[in-house]
């Protein structure tokens, strides 16, 4: 099938490659000329393991191309995916400006029946708005062209994007016509997974509910971790014991410095906004967001208490991205900690394998080190904020000799506390006091 993917960011670039790999002819469209130039040259504008190599092969094969010419992409395609950003506005609602712009452009170029599919995360009811925008643009041209609007939310994780796009655990298809259902099913033919067919509105809600539920698991564990610290219990051991129950499941029970990224914080806020709009307060989810907002401050308070003061102290940050395997720093906990540390008079040295350039641009006062050892050299305290595998393999006997004070705060419970203590560190995990 001929497919266009509009918006070639993390989701769009991955979706383009995955659909081309599945055997379709794909055109990725973006308004950003520079991004399109890079993509056509086989260079990915962000880091995602394996994606660049696959993209290069697909470009060479002619199965994939990128353009800024949306109208041309529309006329040559049967299915059009919307993968533009839907960031948070001040009131928590999703900003649909880019989506509306892309949809109206599609409407101006529509030349026959197409399926317009939202993969962007959008509030319940957006499908109907998309339909209305398209209809308006088509009517303005004095035409009557049939189209279908589908919701096909994306569940990929950054750092594992390609794997998730090629091997999804489920494909949710929200559609209102047999034709759309048949075409979407044909598009994904060959993917061995569960298909969930729903209305457009249900599909839109499934996406927000899924992200919000995962965020709830994390905040539940983060709050419980605070109690573990007061009761001499270990959150990791508690999580392990809980996770053995298949009704609970072992994933997303890792306590830490709070969830970040471009989606959990924004999608929780968007669902809360939708709830307020509909007069149905989601009290539990409200608490999930509150716990998450507090978590990095709670973590930093432990550092402040241990050091007496942050003023004049050298703090080493290990990890800046919101999770390992990506260069994405959107809503990364490090970005919450850095301004507070700087305002308190601390000096920061940081190391991250992929996130230093972006953080360096935002915070020129943060000294970016050439590696983890250089970041830790002379530090009064080390704060592990992202569990990059290379941090787990550091030579800690060397590290302890180079730090001014052997204080190690593990914001991800990524290291073995007992081992760290055996090196001589005063090691503090999240919810692990006394037991790690
Ligand atoms: N990043 C992730 O891991 C996931 C994101 N999502 C959702 O997918 C959507 C996209 O997210 P990301 O890929 O992270 O965003 P992004 O910000 O990385 O990419 C969006 C792209 O859309 C382009 N764009 C904006 N307006 C356009 C227009 N009118 N025409 C063509 N291109 C246009 C931008 O230039 C940019 O390259 C969001 O709704 C997000 O919530 C869903 C699942 C996973
Ligand atoms: O809508 C989205 O954008 C995506 O959001 C998340 O994916 P992602 O944000 O890439 O990363 P996750 O692995 O879910 O981690 C999100 C945050 O939660 C944190 N986390 C995760 C798991 C855990 O147990 N504890 C925890 O603190 C991570 O460190 C990270 O900051 C979802 O997992 C995807 O299914 C979804 O498609």
TrEMBL record:
Reaction equations catalysed:
UDP-alpha-D-glucose + 2 NAD(+) + H2O = UDP-alpha-D-glucuronate + 2 NADH + 3 H(+)
Please name the SUPFAM superfamilies in this protein's record: 6-phosphogluconate dehydrogenase C-terminal domain-like, NAD(P)-binding Rossmann-fold domains, UDP-glucose/GDP-mannose dehydrogenase C-terminal domain
InterPro entries, per the entry: 6-PGluconate_DH-like_C_sf (IPR008927), NAD(P)-bd_dom_sf (IPR036291), UDP-Glc/GDP-Man (IPR017476), UDP-Glc/GDP-Man_DH_C (IPR014027), UDP-Glc/GDP-Man_DH_C_sf (IPR036220), UDP-Glc/GDP-Man_DH_dimer (IPR014026), UDP-Glc/GDP-Man_DH_N (IPR001732), UDPglc_DH_bac (IPR028357)
Supply the EC number(s): 1.1.1.22
Name the pathway.
Answer: Nucleotide-sugar biosynthesis; UDP-alpha-D-glucuronate biosynthesis; UDP-alpha-D-glucuronate from UDP-alpha-D-glucose: step 1/1
Q: Which UniProt keywords apply?
A: NAD, Oxidoreductase
Q: Where does NAD(+) bind?
A: 30, 35, 86, 121, 158, 266, 330
* GO terms for MF: NAD binding; UDP-glucose 6-dehydrogenase activity
Residues reported in the UniProt entry to bind substrate: 155-158, 207, 252-256, 260, 323
What region holds the UDP-glucose/GDP-mannose dehydrogenase C-terminal domain?
316-417
For biological process, the GO terms are:
polysaccharide biosynthetic process; UDP-glucuronate biosynthetic process
What PANTHER family has UniProt attached to this entry? UDP-GLUCOSE 6-DEHYDROGENASE TUAD
The protein's name: UDP-glucose 6-dehydrogenase
Q: Which organism is it from?
A: Tumebacillus algifaecis
């Amino acid at each position: 099938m001929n497919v266009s993917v509009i918006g070639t960011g993390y989701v769009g670039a991955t979706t383009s490659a995955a659909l081309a790999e599945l055997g379709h002819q794909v055109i990725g469209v973006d308004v950003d000329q520079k991004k399109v130039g890079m993509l056509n040259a086989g260079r990915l504008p962000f880091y995602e393991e394996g994606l660049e190599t696959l993209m290069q092969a697909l470009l060479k094969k002619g199965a994939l191309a990128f353009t800024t010419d949306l109208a041309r992409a529309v006329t040559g395609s049967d299915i059009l995916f919307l993968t533009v950003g839907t960031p948070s506005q001040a009131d928590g609602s999703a900003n649909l400006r880019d989506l509306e712009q892309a949809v109206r452009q599609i409407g101006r170029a529509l030349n026959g029946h197409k399926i317009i599919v939202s993969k962007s995360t959008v509030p319940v009811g957006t499908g109907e708005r998309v339909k209305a925008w398209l209809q308006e643009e088509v009517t303005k041209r004095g035409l009557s062209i049939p189209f279908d609007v589908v919701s096909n939310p994306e569940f990929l994780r950054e750092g594992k994007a390609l794997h998730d796009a090629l091997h999804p655990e489920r494909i949710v298809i929200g559609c209102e016509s047999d034709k759309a259902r048949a075409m979407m099913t044909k598009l994904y033919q060959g993917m061995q997974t569960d298909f969930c067919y729903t209305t457009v509105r249900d599909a839109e809600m499934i996406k927000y509910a899924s992200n919000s539920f995962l965020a709830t698991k994390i905040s539940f564990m983060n709050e419980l971790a605070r109690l573990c610290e007061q009761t001499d219990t270990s959150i990791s051991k508690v999580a392990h014991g809980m996770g053995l129950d298949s009704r609970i499941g072992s994933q997303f029970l890792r306590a830490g410095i709070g969830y970040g990224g471009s989606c959990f914080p924004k999608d929780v806020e968007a669902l809360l906004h939708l709830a307020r709009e509909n007069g149905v307060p989601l009290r539990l989810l409200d608490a999930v967001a509150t716990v998450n907002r507090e978590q990095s401050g709670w973590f930093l308070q432990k550092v402040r208490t241990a050091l007496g003061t942050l003023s004049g102290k050298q703090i080493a940050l290990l990890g800046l991205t919101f999770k390992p395997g990506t260069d994405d720093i959107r809503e990364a906990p490090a970005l919450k900690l850095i301004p507070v540390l700087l305002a308190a008079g601390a000096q920061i040295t940081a190391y991250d394998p992929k996130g230093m350039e972006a953080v360096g641009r935002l915070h020129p006062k943060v000294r970016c080190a050439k590696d983890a050892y250089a970041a830790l050299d002379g530090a009064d305290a080390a704060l592990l904020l992202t569990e990059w595998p290379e941090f787990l393999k550091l030579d800690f006997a060397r590290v302890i000799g180079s730090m001014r004070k052997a204080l190690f705060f593990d914001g991800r419970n990524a290291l073995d506390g007992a081992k760290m203590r055996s090196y001589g560190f005063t090691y503090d995990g999240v919810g692990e006091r006394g037991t790690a």
